[in-house]
Structures are given as C-alpha cells and as structure tokens.
Amino acid sequence: MAEGGLRYKDKVVIVTGGSKGIGEGAVRAFVKDGGSKVVFCSRGEEAGKKLESEMNTSGPGEALFIPCDVTKEEDIRNVIDKTVEKYGRIDCLINNAGMHPPEQTIDDTSVEEFRSLLNLNLVSYFIASKFALPHLRKTQGNIINMSSLVGIIGQTHACAYVTTKGGITSLTRALAVDEAKYGVRVNTVSPGNIWTPMWDGLSKASGNTEAMVKGGEEAQLLGRMGTIEEAGKVCLFLAAEATFSTGRVPVFGHLRALGGTPLLKMAAWRRQYGDVFTLRMGMEDEVVLNGYTAVKDALVDRSELFASTIPGYLLDVLVGFGKGILGAPWGPGYRQRKRFATTVLKNLGMKVGQSNGQPVDIAHDVSVAVSNIICSMTVGKRYDYEDETFRELYKAIAAITFEVGTGRIIGAFPLLRFVPVELEQQEKVDGLTVENVLHMTTELFFAGTETTTNTLLWSLLFMTLNPDVQNKVQEELDAVVGTSLPALSHRSQLTYVNACLLETMKIRTLLQLHVLFSGRRVCPGEQLARMELFLFFSTLLQSFTFITPEGAPAPNTDGIFRLTLKPHPFQLCAIRR
C-alpha cells in the first residue's frame, strides 16, 4: 500500500459518467482512499462542478470535471487530450457512462433507439479505450469497464440494454488479450443491484416502486442493494491491488451468489429476470427454467433436444459413463435398457412400532425398508434390518448420494479432474452387456432408495407439523380401509391421501435443478416409486399418529441441498393408534 495508506497515490484516473451513480462512487473512492488525480466527465455540468468542488476540498487526492457527451467522438478525445495536457499521463480509464431505459419489448423498440443506446453504452467504451490506450501502454495502466450481470443472465423487456452489457463484457475479453503484451490490464465489473439515481428513476417509472425495490433487494445475497461507494471501492481494488487480473476469466461465476439457499435465490432472480435465464457455474453456462410454459416448451414440445442431458462428471463416474440408464445418451441403447429396467420393476410381487411413542429419527428405518424392496428385485433377496452387510450397503448409498451433490463442482471446474479417466468404446449399441446390467442395478439402488426415502421423510415431517391435515388423512383411511391393511386397490378411493403425497412432491421437489429425469427420460421406476410411497405412507398413517417430541423446537423445513433435497435430521414420536 502506498505512503499514508493511500492505495493509488498520484495516479491519473479518468472516469466517464462520473457526476452521479457508480461513476460518482468511483470518483469518491479514488480521491479519498486512493489519493489519485481524477478527471471525470458527464453531461450534468451542475452536478459535476459540485462534486469537483467537494472532492478538492476534502482531498487528499484531487478532481477535475470536464463537460462531455460520450456519444460524440470529439468530446471523448477532448477529455483524453486535456488529461494528458494537465498531468502528462493516464494510469487508469474507467468506462462507466450509460443508461438503462424503461422496460420495452423488441416490438416497441425502434431501430434508432437501439442504435442510440449502443452508441451511449457500448460505442463510447470503444472510443474512450481507443484514444486512451496509447497513453496506458506507456504507464502499463489498466481499463475498468462497468457492465452488468444482465449481460450474462439476461433480463426481461430489456433486449437493447442487455445487448450493450454483453458487448462490454466481450470487448473486455478482446482488449485483455490484445493489450496483455503491453502490460495493460482490462477488467469488467458486473455488479448486482446498486442503488443509484438510475435505479430510483426506473423504480418510480415502473408503477409499483415498492415492489420493484423489494425485488431488487431480494435478488442480492445480503438482502440489500449495494451502494455507489462500495462499487467505487471495487474499481479501486482492481486498479491498485489486482495487478495480476486481466480479462473476464470466470472462476466461480454465480456459484458464490447462490449462497446456502440456491432455490430461494433462483426464485428471486426469476422475479427480476423472468422465467428463463442463464447462470455461470464455474466454467459452465446453465439455463434455468421456471414456470409451466418454459418447462413444457423444453421437455415436451422440444423434448428431443434435451433427451441426452448429462448430469455431471462425478455422477458420470458413479453410473459408468453411460453404461447404465442415467448417463446414457438418447438412442437405441438407452431405450433398450429402459425397457429392460421397466420390465424388472413391474415384477414387484414394522420397525416403527418398536419406538413405543418415544422420540426417534425415522430416516434410517424408512431408508432400509425402501432399499429392501429394490434389493429383493435386483438380487432376489431381502435382508434383516440389522444385517451387517445390508447396513454397510445402506451407509455407502447414503454417503455417496450426499457427496454427489457437492461433486457437481467437478463439472463446473474441469481442471479438477486430476485423475484421467479413459472412456471405453461400447461394443454393441443395441445389445445388453453384463456391464450394462451391473450399472443399471447400481442405479436402481441409488435412485430407488434416495428419492423414495426422502419423499417419504418429507411427507411424515409435514404430517407431524400439520396435525389437522394428518387427522384428515387418518379419517379417510379409517373410512375407506377400516382395520385391514391399505392396498393398491384402495388407491383410487383415497383421494386426500394421494393429494397430500402430491403436495409434498410439489413443495419439496427432490431434483429441483435437473431436467435429466423428465420428458423423454422420465424415470422407468416412477410408477414403482409412487406405489411404494402410497403403501408406506398410508400404512404408517393408519397405524400411528406422528407428533413432535414435547418441548423440542420445530424441525427445520428448509432442506439440505445435495444430489436431492433431503430434510435436516429430525425426531418424531410415533403414537400407536
């Protein structure tokens, strides 16, 4: 850090659009914390002169305001020339001038409006960079281009604005490559929502200021918008400390912005950006679909385009790189294996009571019961609950399914594949090999145990937390089934029981970020799973009333986001009816 704690002392900085908003934040940061000589320009002469006076009074750096219309080439050249004339050098150029017009579809946007916004938001960056670079090469300086996340993930009714921001990001990449040989760094700042006069104006023009502001705040991880001072300090960091950073090289993308509740964060982004948007997940771009229309369009109307979706590198390793069903590409081989698995599944021919009403974590017993059904179909044998071999198998499944969710990181960052894996050529596309059957059996254990177990656990958790609903389920079971055991023949008559199961699957969908098991790749075990869920759920609710332990806090219903969305560990009391 420079003398006196000033981080960019005596460096010469140009900021376009510097009289208000993020540009003002940059001027303040470089003058106050950087100790820099800042030349800034804008069309707002009154605001510019006022900020110039304030900065020169407060110091420790200094400021010079030059009126400028960045859509005019001669005005930008004038700013560059006057800066070099006064200070003899340029160390940093911050391209910031721009605007966000009100919401407007492409049908309502004229060609002239589109060209005009391009000139202001994008062409001005090109012109300023072109005229400043001969001087920046001498000082091995840097360019900072202010862009926006919408240039990556899109935004509804803003095609012109999104185009300009995407162009800024691409311009940054291109300049970074070209100018690296001169030691000039070029970076982009794509902030989230920063509270600026532009945001204030857009929210007031929306017709629902409060809702728009709230949506902007909820879309941020901290639950608030950033300040112009915070945005300015990011620019100062890039200029003063980030001396090995150049170009927009994605490392984390939006991964860190997702936080601990990615589904809630995506729901907030949906409100801001619409039903279809793109996330940068490390080195991958992933499209997020929301709403019936978008999902139907992808998985039904254009199902063949998504039929070969691959889940990720680590899951590929676990399921044999397409030798089973889950990772197999769409085609004759996949269809034959699915028919085989479906045929096996169609051939499907209590320990809870031992708790005596005491608090118990039911997850283990439910998972063991579900796994035993899969085991009886795949190897023709059922195991005792306490069988050591079976317990080890269950523990292995639980451990792998927990880690696979975090293992998706390997797909996002291919360089982490430090152990090379050789893909074997499939000898017979239309034939089943022993290896195919082995991987399909493994998949049946994973898919058949994890998904059914967690759906049943969610169902029991919500029954425990909603005793009125549980009571209605039991009343229907008593009326339809009586004292006999629930059977599949009762299914059509138990409408409320079925409705509760469907509602659980809706509000706690296990595979919320996957299209792999939808459309043409619908799971061959879906019908078996629905039958299992119905029989387990109805039998348990017929025999027991589930309540939370007395004095215990209410269980957490947010879920643990891994390969599937599973409930946090919880205890309940099973009271025999």
Number of domains: 2
| Averaged pLDDT | 76
* Form type: elongated
What's the total helix number?
A: 20
Q: Could you give me the name of the CATH homologous superfamily of the largest domain? A: Cytochrome P450
Q: Structural class, judged by helices and strands?
A: alpha/beta
For this structure, the CATH topology of the largest domain is: Cytochrome p450
The CATH architecture of the largest domain can be given as Orthogonal Bundle
List how many beta strands DSSP finds: 13
Give me the side-by-side strand order of the main sheet.
Answer: 3-2-1-4-5-6
Specify the biggest β-sheet: 6 strands, parallel
- Radius of gyration, Cα only, in angstroms? 30 Å
Instruction: Please report which band the strand proportion falls in: under 5%, 5-15%, 15-25%, 25-35%, 35-45% or over 45%.
Output: 5-15%
Which stretches are poorly predicted, pLDDT < 50 over at least 5 residues?
340-355, 376-380, 404-410, 412-430, 511-518
Task: Output the CATH class name of the largest domain.
Answer: Mainly Alpha
Q: Kindly, what is the distance between the CA atoms of the first and last residues, rounded to a whole number of angstroms?
A: 72 Å
**Helix coverage percent:** 40-55%
